[in-house]
Amino acid sequence: MTENIKRAEIRVDVQHAIELITDIFKAKSCNDNEAKTIAERLAGSNLVGHDSHGIARVPRYVEWMEKGWVFPNLKPEIVIDAGAMGCLDAKQGFGQVAGEYAVDDGILRAKKHGVSVVGLRNSGHLGRIGDWAERAADADLISFHFVNVRGSLLVAPFGGSDRRGSTSPLAIGIPSKDKDHIILDMATSTVAEGKVMVAQKGGKQLPHGALIDSTGKLTTNPEAMYGKIRDDEVPNPDKGTGAITAFGLHKGSGINFMMEMLGGALTGNGVCGALNEKERRKFSNGMLSIYIEVEKMVDFDYFRKEVKSYADFVRASKPSQNNDKVLIPGDKEISTKEERLKFGLPVPPLVWENIKQTANKLNVENLERFENAIK
Ligand code: NAD
């Protein structure tokens, strides 16, 4: 496939994509509810512009089920139940489901105590972490989510050139009673690994300095992460010798380190990797979440007014060169969602084809729906 065709893009209808992906996970024996939850959260991530954590992940999730890294139809177990503190063990069940249980547990505890701290360990991929901050904000709670990715060594620390960290995301949610919550949601690497995967499949190219190759040179070529691969192959970071850089120089690299302490060591999930271990740790997300009930601290209307006036103050900053607008966390996701609900999800054709191949392999019926979904 030439680079030009690879970089073309199709638009896919969200509801059609959800139905097809639900069928794929049902074919892998997920119950109806779980299959739909996975499909909705993946497509939901595309909707807000995080294609890295969207439907492009389907072939990889199926591969992970086949490798025994994630299991269908599991309900997380509450392993610590101590008032404002709790911890759930997802036992390698799907993160889309485990995340909902963990956040709902945190909401219940915070509503009772004003604040809560809830760990989640051994979770399948939790997807877009902003989803969890949004769920807490819908319940009028501020929340912080510190996440690590056990077994996923992808990130070079500041000053280093090989993989010692995970892309360990951080999300912070500020609720608004009007539901226009403010959500900061970011990998603590320069880009999320999924962005490298999407770039490899012909999607948006990577920013300068996103990757470092094994010689210590900065690059934007996804080959540094996956080596040379065929179009029908699932990109596998084990096949590359380079790394993603930690964001924000030494300070960002420090925050990336702390994610392993909070999301990894403290939750009982375990950090992403260690010296002298023969076997790589099994993949799982660990998430430490803190929830705060606004009204226990200040009047909600006062809070809301202060939040809004500061957001407007920042947005009113004079744009710098080559910038037409100043945004606050979450603005981009809100405008992207409006546009994509109207015009569909932009998907590299190769990503759509790979999902179709996965469906075909699992004998999902009526594959012509893949063509019908294209707007
Ligand atoms: P990103 O760089 O696109 O956005 C990061 C944050 O910056 C967002 O809050 C966004 O609103 C804000 N932002 C974007 N453009 C802006 C601008 N011009 N001005 C001001 N603010 C702006 O996101 P990312 O770091 O690539 O992360 C992508 C997704 O990957 C996230 O949803 C994250 O949760 C997810 N992730 C998940 C895992 C996992 O293991 N589950 C690991 C890593 C990342």
Shape from CA axes? globular
Low-confidence stretches: 1-5
Radius of gyration: 20 Å
Distance between the termini: 23 Å
Q: What structural class results from the helix and strand content?
A: alpha+beta
Mean pLDDT across residues: 95
**Strand numbers in spatial order across the main sheet:** 2-3-4-12-5-7-8
Number of H/I helices? 13
Report the sheet with the most strands, covering strand number, pairing sense and barrel closure. 7 strands, mixed
Ligands (ions, cofactors included): nicotinamide-adenine-dinucleotide
Total strands: 13
Name the beta content range: 15-25%
Topology pattern, helix = H, strand = E: HEHHHEEHEHEEEEHEEHEHEHHEHH
Helix content: 25-40%
Tell me what the structure shows.
With 375 residues, this protein is α+β, with helices and mostly antiparallel strands. The chain is 40% helix and 17% strand. The chain contains 13 helices and 13 strands. The chain has helices at residues 3-7, 14-27, 32-47, 58-67, 95-113, 130-138, 193-200, 223-226, 249-266, 300-315, 331-343, 349-361, 369-372; strands at residues 10-12, 77-82, 85-89, 115-123, 141-150, 155-156, 170-174, 182-186, 211-212, 218-219, 243-245, 284-293, 345-347. The strands form 3 sheets. A 7-stranded mixed sheet has the order 2-3-4-12-5-7-8, with helices on both faces. A hairpin with a 7-residue loop joins strand 7 and strand 8. Helix 2 runs antiparallel to helix 3 and helix 5 (95-113) runs parallel beside helix 6 (130-138). The radius of gyration is 20 Å and the shape is globular. Mean pLDDT is 95; it is low at 1-5. It binds nicotinamide-adenine-dinucleotide. Nicotinamide-adenine-dinucleotide is lined by residues 50, 52-53, 125-130, 147, 149, 167, 169, 171, 184-187, 191-192, 195, 285, 327, 329-330, 332-333.
